[in-house]
Design brief:
By secondary structure, the protein is an alpha+beta fold. The protein has 3 domains: 38 residues; 160 residues, Alpha-Beta Plaits; 66 residues, 2-Layer Sandwich (Double Stranded RNA Binding Domain), CATH 3.30.160.20. 41% of the residues lie in helices and 26% in strands. It is built from 8 helices and 11 strands. The strands form 2 sheets. It has an 8-stranded mixed beta sheet, sandwiched between helices. It is elongated. The two termini are 30 Å apart.
């Protein structure tokens, strides 16, 4: 990219390229460098995963349910622009309009890393279409994002963490079962998980099966840890109403502002149509600076 810019500058000196072409190439190179710097913040193993995104309507009644559906549309359009696949997991309709809650799965590289900063309460201010007097209304919706664990997450087991025992299998199986120590028991020392396997005839096969069973249990344990982290995050969230928002969307003033980073834009239509990358970047870059 930089080499292309240097070549283009040489062409300009020779009258074979315009100043406008050089400026365009410069802006393109600058954007590429900024994107590279931004991508460098997504360096945790879970960042590259897809995600589950949940939206829950908060204070504001029908207006809040409508706002929750607007947010669903915003994130769905954002994902579509990225070429990500969106699947609806569950949806609870509002009593009059919109949705009370919804959960979607977003599959795409770094979907979780990009969206993890969206956790929190989102505040909408507008002239309500549901108010007969045309009053200015404020409503809230809470967003939660967590990683979608898939086959890319490998369960690694350190052999030094395993304690193996062998014993004679019990139950039916004939003389072979009674005379050889084909059954195995493995204890995972860090977690305390114990697995036994005696279903196969050979000790080697039972060891393989026991290790597979252990990995399955460790995988389940990791999912439980993620769930507990989610519950902790939910518990730490403030009440889903005034004063707790991470971002405000003030439509009659044509302003969307992130209260954590100070980044704001006046193009509210673009934001609600999924153009939220600048908000995502601002948050992730601010977190990188803190670290």
């Amino acid at each position: 990219m930089v080499e292309d810019l240097e070549v283009l500058e040489e062409f300009q000196k020779e009258g074979e390229a315009s100043e406008e072409e050089v400026d365009d190439k410069y802006r393109e190179a600058l954007a590429a460098l900024e994107d590279l710097e931004f991508r460098s913040t997504l360096n945790k193993p879970e960042d590259e995963l897809g995600c589950i995104l949940e939206i829950n309507a908060g204070a504001g009644g029908t207006e809040a349910c409508d706002w929750a559906e607007m947010l669903l549309r915003m994130y769905t359009m954002w994902a579509g622009k990225k070429g990500f696949k969106v699947s609806l997991l569950n949806r609870q309709e509002g009593d009059v309009a919109g949705i009370k809650s919804v959960a979607i799965e977003i599959n795409g590289d770094f979907a979780y890393g990009l969206l993890k900063g969206e956790n929190g309460v989102h505040r909408l201010v507008r002239i309500s279409p549901y108010n007969a007097q045309g009053k200015r209304m404020t409503s809230f919706a809470a967003v939660f994002v967590h990683p979608l664990v898939d086959e890319r997450i490998e369960v690694e087991v350190n052999p030094a963490d395993l304690e193996w025992d062998t014993f004679r299998a019990s139950g039916a199986g004939g003389q072979h079962v009674n005379k050889t120590e084909s059954a195995v028991r493995v204890r995972h020392l860090p977690s305390g998980i114990v697995v036994e396997c005696q279903q196969e005839r050979s000790q080697h096969q039972n060891r393989e099966k026991a290790l597979q069973m252990l990995k399955s249990k460790l995988y389940e344990l990791e999912l439980q840890r993620l769930k507990e982290e989610r519950n902790k995050l939910e518990a730490e969230k403030k009440k889903n109403e005034w004063g707790s928002q991470i971002r405000s969307y003030v439509l009659d003033d044509r302003r969307v502002k992130d209260h954590r980073t100070g980044y704001q834009t006046g193009n509210t239509d673009a934001v609600l149509n999924g153009e939220i990358d600048e908000f995502l970047k601002a948050y992730l870059m601010s977190k990188e600076e803190v670290q």
